[in-house]
Amino acid sequence: MSLSSVGPAPFCRRPSRRNDAPHNARIGGRVSRLSALRPTVIAAALVAGLSLPAWAVDPFTLKDIRVEGLQRSDAGTVFGALPFRIGDTYTDEKGAAALRALFATGLFKDVRIEIVDDVAVVIVEERPIIAGVEFVGLKEFDKDALTKSLKDVGIGEGQPFDRALADRAEQELKRQYLTKSLYGAEVVTTITPIERNRVNVSFNVVEGEVAKISEIRIVGAKAFSEGTLLGQLESTTSGWLTWYTKTDRYSRTKLNADLETLRSYYLDRGYLEFRVDSTQVAISPDKQNIAITINITEGQPYTVTEVRLEGDYLGKEDDFKRVISVKPGEAYRAADVAETTRRFTELYGLFGYAFARIETRPEIDRATGRVAVVLVGEPSRRVYVRRVNVAGNARTRDEIVRREFRQFESSWYDGRKIKLSRDRIDRLGYFSEVTVDTAEVPGSPDQVDLTANVKEKPTGNIQLGAGFSSAEKLSLNFGIKQDNIFGSGNYLGLEFNTSRYNRTFVLSTVDPYFTIDGVSRGIDVYYRTQKPINSQGEEYSIVTQGGAIRFGVPFTEYDTVFMGVGVERTEIRAGASIPNSYFLYREEFGDTSTSLPITLGWQRDSRDSALVPTAGRYQRLNAEWGAAFDTRYLRANYQIQQWIPLGKKFTLGLNAEAGWGEGLSGRPFPIFKNFYGGGLGSVRGFDQGSLGPVDVTGAYIGGNRKLNINAEFYVPVPGSGNDRTLRLFAWADAGNVWGENDDNASFDDLRSSAGIGLSWVSPVGPLKLSYGTPLRKFSQDRIQRFQFQIGTAF
User: 212-297: what fold?
Assistant: First the structure.
């Protein structure tokens, strides 16, 4: 017969006089003496137990402690949890504490304490150990990810089995299926006992079909058509592309975001009192179709009559008025108000007020449909920066981030310098996300700490390029670049080109902070073999080998001037035949030329991101002077890029590049220094290097002048939201190359093309796929419609 107590003190009484009966009692179990009693006596004892407190154990001195029932757990775990030791006085309270401590370990299914002749016998029943976790029928989720997440909450191989945790995991898995619009999903947990007190846990899943949005209605719209409003939402009904975008899948989070989008749409058009009254989501009996109804009240539109400043503007009201975006006489736009508030905050920050508050108070006149916008400014207190911290950089050294900061410690807070610091860190290209957070210093109201939070991305870049044409067939480019080698901020690059006409080996390294003042140093070693494209099949090549060193000196936050010098040796190797232009140059100046190029360059970069820019400008100018040895020439190249944001989702990128070269000291411009056009980085849709002068033998030899003009219009991939790492783009290119003998060069000679493409910041670098067709071409041009590359912007 078992007398188990329920409560904090499940103790059995022992005889009151130790000499009258054997000293046998136990906690949470049976008393051995009771097993000999008749059933009637036992029943009477049970009835008495309902009205009497649990039997207690008189305090006594422990002679020994024994543990029974252990299979896998260490006895030390049990002894470590017990609040008593041999020789201690044992009490009911200590026994209850021992039970709580042992159950709290999570290792035991049942625990009992028996007292036998002043010996505490701890009897445990261990929980089964999970031998394995299995998923059956899982398709929508990654099995490895689920296994890891379940192990984090206690359901994993080698962990004690807890039925409550298994049930909770089952419910969480069902909830996750609801977020995927799989409302018919069923999850059944099966526990299979196996030998040695182990169990297998199996989650059997029947996912069913995805419930799709069959209807979305907006009730109450009068000022705008329902179709116009539905076009603003991320959620859509099923269509031809929704198999990929999955926008026809319902989720509460996405619906809430759509409601905010709808609210912003109205607020930006003057409807200050717009509200969403209710939303109804109905699912069909077969759990396959979802209907959404959104009930709204538009209110009336309001026109801004005036913008008034109130509060403390530090005596600089004129400065604040100049940055106001809200225009009297126009419809009230919440976006303009938010932009004005942001600019006010930044302006306060320029003067050291990091915690300025701007309250927007619209004064509405419903009778006339007008509103006065009142901006109340409160600068709070001026603060200075105590400390600048860096967080999130597991690989990149702190100093690499810190040296880009223009907000210094122990100086007044300057919002402009903080923004500049954030942009400089982002332009390093080492991080996918960069934010700078401001935190008050406890006990010091006039101090703040800045923390640069960065999220590192792979800085290794495998550069690939490929194309197919009737001339080169399949051409491949390959390169390995590391922009942040060993977290030092230094660049190391190794480049190979294995195409039929151009073979290259380049080893480059750049130390961006060669001096503490930010002077950079770059070293290049290269070996190039070039076979200009030739329609007649002549076998010849141009082999260039050399090295160079260059330094970059920053003059402003955005401007850097580069200076360098190098030595290179160029050899024209002739085969069975050679194009006439190369033959004549070789006959006049020999098959080998040595030069001493001195370079001077300038670069300005104000883009918001080097990886996926959406705003800003990039410019560079490079000049190369062949000052000594066998060649005398001047070669210059200028490039400008402009990125224009068109709303939150669209970006227009413009690029223009011009090159010019001239021979000096009565010598012609070296033919092996010619510019080439066509293909990637130039005019897409044409074969690589195929634009420009053609030799009498049919070879494309390039020229001493070139012009490229490119435009790209970026849009997000449907269903990807505002993700800038994956975008579609339409492009248009124009350009050409001219030689020294092209005296009548004009824009009529330009080739042009257009097409579409995909841009993706892949794990191995920025990838671009493009397909296009020439719009203006000539009979000798070679066409290459499909091209892709990794690592190049235009």
Answer: Ubiquitin-like (UB roll) (3.10.20)
